[in-house]
Amino acid sequence: MVARLTAEERQKALASLDGWKLAGGREAIARSFSFASFVEAFGFMAKVALIAEKMDHHPVWSNVYNRVDITLATHAAGGVTARDIELAAAIDRIAAA
Fold first, then answer.
1. pLDDT band at residue 41, thresholds of 50, 70 and 90?
2. What integer best gives the mean pLDDT of the chain?
3. Which pLDDT band holds residue 78 (cuts at 50, 70, 90)?
4. Distance between CA atoms of 12 and 53, rounded to whole angstroms?
5. Greatest CA span in the chain, whole angstroms?
6. Is the predicted pLDDT of residue 1 greater than 80, yes or no?
């Protein structure tokens, strides 16, 4: 099992990510993405889904029209782990492309 990050490790990792923050009410990280259209948002989700499936690490997310909200935590560890940081960085790369 992957170890949960300490509060200090979590803050350091968040500083290296673009726009991610601690999620309210639970030990997780979250970010919202906005796109020009529903189709663009859905395409982004499809790309993220392929990476998440390859990593066997799946986000909690929602989509409303052009917005995608993503929350990451490692359920087995009870909080944020290096796997969440790795997936967040991959999501950022997809969003920037």
1. very high
2. 94
3. confident
4. 26
5. 39
6. no
Residue 11 gets the label, from left (phi > 0), alpha (psi -120 to 50) or beta, of alpha
* Angstrom distance (rounded) from CA 11 to CA 13: 5
CB-CB neighbours of 12 under 10 Å? 12
pTM comes to 0.92
Q: Is 5 helix (H, G, I), strand (E, B) or coil?
A: coil
Query: Which CATH number applies to 7-96?
Result: 3.30.1360.20
CA distance 29 to 65: 22
Q: Residue 1 corresponds to which tokens in the numbers above?
A: 């099992």
**Integer Cα distance of 31 and 18 in angstroms:** 9
Cα 39 from Cα 57, distance rounded (Å): 24
